Amino acid sequence: MVTLIRDGEVTIVVDPGMVASRNAILDPLTKLGVQVGQVTDVVFSHHHPDHTLNAALFPDARFHDFWAIYQDDRWDDRDADGFHLSPAVRLMSTPGHTAQDISTLAETEDGLVVLTHLWWHADGPQVDPRAENLELLHVNRDKVLALRPALIIPGHGAPFAPASA
């Protein structure tokens, strides 16, 4: 699910993947007053095309994955786990779906919001059919739930409160 996060001077797009039309990404940004050149950071939860395909829409952004930051012709190695994109937004290593999965954690007035592919939808599937390591996926689900998030934005479904999962 393509998601926008704004925190002060930082404007983040998470998982700009496959959509029927690029306007499905661009039109909502425009309605919110965000131009593509204002996006400072793009986060890939993992490297499947349905989460990365439209990254080039944001030519001025830094791109984040599990092990580096990329911008223009620079590749800066760093572990994503604990990396802060802004004072309220950080990354967390959450492998399971793939070995390289990361989640984006955003502290908001309403509590912690976690964008993650540890869940596809609020109602499942309980067993991720594409998980590279199902045991690790469940360990990381528990790790995320221990943070007591107010909201989880799963990889392919509508946001949900963890109590309803």
Rg over C-alpha atoms, rounded to the nearest angstrom: 15 Å
**Order of strands in the sheet with most strands:** 1-2-3-4-5-6
CATH architecture identity? 4-Layer Sandwich
What is the number of helical segments per DSSP (H or I, 4+ residues)?
Answer: 3
Walkthrough of the structure:
With 165 residues, this protein is an alpha/beta fold. The protein has a single domain, classed as Metallo-beta-lactamase, Chain A, CATH 3.60.15.10. The chain has three helices and eleven strands. Strands 1-2-3-4-5-6 form a six-stranded mixed β-sheet, with no helix packed on it. It has a five-stranded mixed β-sheet with strand order 7-8-9-10-11, with no helix packed on it. The longest helix is centred in the last third of the chain and has 13 residues. It starts with a strand and ends in an 11-residue tail after the last strand. The relative contact order is 0.15.
Topology:
Blueprint: E1 3-7, E2 10-14, H1 23-31, E3 41-43, H2 49-52, E4 62-64, E5 68-71, E6 74-77, E7 84-86, E8 89-93, E9 102-108, E10 111-116, H3 134-146, E11 151-154
Parallel strand pairs: 2-3, 3-4, 10-11
Antiparallel strand pairs: 1-2, 4-5, 5-6, 7-8, 8-9, 9-10
